[in-house]
Amino acid sequence: MKDKIVIVGAGVAGVNAATKLVDNGYPGELITIIDMGKSPYERKPEEVMTGFLGAGGWSDGKLTYHTAIGGHLSKYCGEEKAMELMDQVITNFKRFHPKPEEVQCSNPESEPDFIKPYFGLRLFPVWHVGTDYLFHIACNWYEYLLSKNVNFLWEHKVTDINFETGEVILED
Ligand SMILES: Cc1cc2nc3c(=O)[nH]c(=O)nc-3n(C[C@H](O)[C@H](O)[C@H](O)COP(=O)(O)OP(=O)(O)OC[C@H]3O[C@@H](n4cnc5c(N)ncnc54)[C@H](O)[C@@H]3O)c2cc1C
Questions:
Q1: Residue bearing the CA closest to ligand 1, atom 19
Q2: Which residues contact 18 (CB under 8 A, 6 or more apart)?
């Protein structure tokens, strides 16, 4: 028998984890995503940190394509694997995009040497998904997960997890 899975947070990480599971045939009905924010249909523009696609999928539609920024993924799985996982996230953004052909990657040339000591600029490749499309991507993605019977519990905050019993504790 397969285990029940609870994912805390419907941000980019949680949504991609659930997508990977159902894409690989894991039964969606055994997956529950709990988020203190709202579904893409109800999420307000000012709710920048909570709800479907979290902060990263609901801001300005740029995905920084480098492991030196935004977290510690490569520390846990190595540089090559981290870039492979990042590619999978970008593929998913294109997959649920209404116009995937418009998604582009910019790869700026490194800054001139005379600027480096003064500004500390760091230039990275960036995928441009398009701010105006984020809502549509989120809705398409959400519908896909719903069609796979993934459960969502909105506007519930997780306050603790008992890993011995598998109990997830929610705020009253
Ligand atoms: C304003 C802003 C703009 C950004 N812009 C970019 C950008 O353009 N490009 C880029 O590459 N990165 C950007 N980032 C960084 C990017 O947002 C993060 O790297 C990314 O969101 C991390 O994804 P995540 O799923 O780990 O977390 P999040 O996206 O933060 O998602 C976490 C989710 O968990 C939920 N949650 C948290 N705690 C609980 C709890 N206790 N109970 C229930 N639910 C909970 C939240 O509601 C949220 O939906 C930006 C960040 C911010 C804040």
A1: 70
A2: 7, 28, 31, 33, 145, 150
